[in-house]
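STRUCTURE:
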């Protein structure tokens, strides 16, 4: 009996020791992630400020020639030539390309050659088969529209709106973290509001400065081009095998994976934003990157920006985050289509902000939202997301991704 008791005591002691070791291991892992998060905050803040400073500087440089110095948004991609005398505007959903140039009576061939030779615009046009012939033909057979430019002051609201959207995007990214409390969000909002007000002040000063010179803005000559049906598939072709591999591995709809990636970066593996997010699927290292590393890949550290610029790695993290959203954070939503709509929105803004669309107020509990969501049809869920998501950008994102997904389903089939 004494031997049995002694043996049992040893076993219990060994188990407790193992438990202590495991607890220590988990604590060490948590500490590593916390150390990453702490260092990342400082790095992120410096990156964000630098990115926005460059954005503002470029916008102001465009004001010399363009009274409406718009840049890329959720609605369209906009790329200027190096000399800033022309720009292209691409609407992926409508599959249209607008060529806008400061009024010059140039032959179509001359214009197209300039766009294809320019290092900025040529990259965007490379997905068009026989681009030179197609663009020249449509420019010659179509009609040019000539638009008179107004003043910078008349487009001030659009410039300010772009800055307010960036502020919203930052808040949305911050509030996707369930550990962030409402007080932190309010404090961040107050800080960002002051920062945005300062940016707007600088824009107003630039508008006033240019107005004193009484600039003579040239007319804009516009040609609209219909993009070919294989335009989308051409853009994704270099990365398709990696998308297919991840879709198969995680039992995920390939069309959804492609639509989200397209909405995030238009398949630019070097894309980055002020959030900051990186690569094809615009992974934020401190949120989606950390989640996938810890919960799915069992890695000790979140990915770096350099790692996320690698297409294969980026697709692995992006598809992994979608899997986590669908199979963990939002698994309590019964209807698959309703859950998919919520996953799309959550990829942009986090599950907590999706919950707010159904709970009302500041309640970010997804468990509380389940009860409401599961009483609705998928169509009602979609409509409620479109109306009640706390950030306008996420509402636009949901619409764009669902439209792109339909297009990819057709292309894939």
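SEQUENCE:
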């Amino acid at each position: 009996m004494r031997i049995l008791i002694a043996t049992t005591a040893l076993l219990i002691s060994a188990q407790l020791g193992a438990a202590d070791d495991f607890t220590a291991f988990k604590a060490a892992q948590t500490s590593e992630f916390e150390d990453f998060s702490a260092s990342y905050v400082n790095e992120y803040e410096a990156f964000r400020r630098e990115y926005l400073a460059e954005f503002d500087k470029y916008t102001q440089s465009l004001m010399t020639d363009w009274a409406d110095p718009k840049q890329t948004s959720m609605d369209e991609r906009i790329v200027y030539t190096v000399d800033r005398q022309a720009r292209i505007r691409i609407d992926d959903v409508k599959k249209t390309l607008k060529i806008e140039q400061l009024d010059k009576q140039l032959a179509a061939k001359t214009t197209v050659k300039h766009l294809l030779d320019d290092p900025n615009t040529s990259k965007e046009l490379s997905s068009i088969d026989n681009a030179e012939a197609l663009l020249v033909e449509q420019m010659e057979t179509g009609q040019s529209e000539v638009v008179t430019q107004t003043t910078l002051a008349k487009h001030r609201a659009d410039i300010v709106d772009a800055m307010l959207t960036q502020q919203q995007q930052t808040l949305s990214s911050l509030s996707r973290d369930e550990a962030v409390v409402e007080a932190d969000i309010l404090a961040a909002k107050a800080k960002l509001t002051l920062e945005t007000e300062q940016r707007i002040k600088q824009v107003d000063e630039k508008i006033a400065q240019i107005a004193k010179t009484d600039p003579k803005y040239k007319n804009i000559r516009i040609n609209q081009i219909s993009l070919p049906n294989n335009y989308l598939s051409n853009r994704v072709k270099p990365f398709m095998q990696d998308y297919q591999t991840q879709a198969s591995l995680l039992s995920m709809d390939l069309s959804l994976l492609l639509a989200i990636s397209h909405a995030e970066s238009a398949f630019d593996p070097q894309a980055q934003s002020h959030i900051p997010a990186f690569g094809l699927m615009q992974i934020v290292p401190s949120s989606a990157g950390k989640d996938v590393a810890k919960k799915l890949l069992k890695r000790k550290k979140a990915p770096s920006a350099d790692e996320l610029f690698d297409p294969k790695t980026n697709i692995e993290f992006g598809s992994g985050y979608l899997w986590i959203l669908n199979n963990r954070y939002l698994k309590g939503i019964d209807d698959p289509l309703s859950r998919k709509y919520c996953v799309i929105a959550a990829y942009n803004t986090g599950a907590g902000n999706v919950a707010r669309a159904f709970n009302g107020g500041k309640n970010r509990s997804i468990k509380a939202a389940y009860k409401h969501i599961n009483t609705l049809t998928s169509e009602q869920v979609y409509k409620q997301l479109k109306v009640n998501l706390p950030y306008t950008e996420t509402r636009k994102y949901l619409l764009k991704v669902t439209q792109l997904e339909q297009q990819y389903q057709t292309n894939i089939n």
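REMARK: Confidence is low (pLDDT under 50) at residues 1-38.
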